Amino acid sequence: xxxxxxxxxxxxxxxxxxxxxxxxxxxxxxxxxxxxxxxxxxxxxxxxxxxxxxxxxxxxxxxxxxxxxxxxxxxxxxxxxxxxxxxxxxxxxxxxxxxxxxxxxxxxxxxxxxxxxxxx
Length: 120
Hints:
Layout: E1 39-41, H1 44-55, H2 59-65, H3 69-78, E2 83-85, H4 96-104
Antiparallel strand pairs: 1-2
């Protein structure tokens, strides 16, 4: 049985050794975030209802707070798209994808449009 010695990793650091030609090495890390935790809205009214029920925000408060996002939401709903709210935290040590999103922001994708990528 082999015992690993050195290059021990934990939640805060990791070590590795790689080899390749200079200036040609690229490390691509792909992570998949569990989207089942996203809150889905089919209409703007559903979003307003959620804001009122879960956050105690009136329609007027919601319009003010999300003044940049509401017009974008309307456009996406008009295209037949759904709008989703997600929240990730670095406190959830088991969710590497969520931690990466916290630290780096949402990656651009051709499968979704980012309407807001920040704390709200």
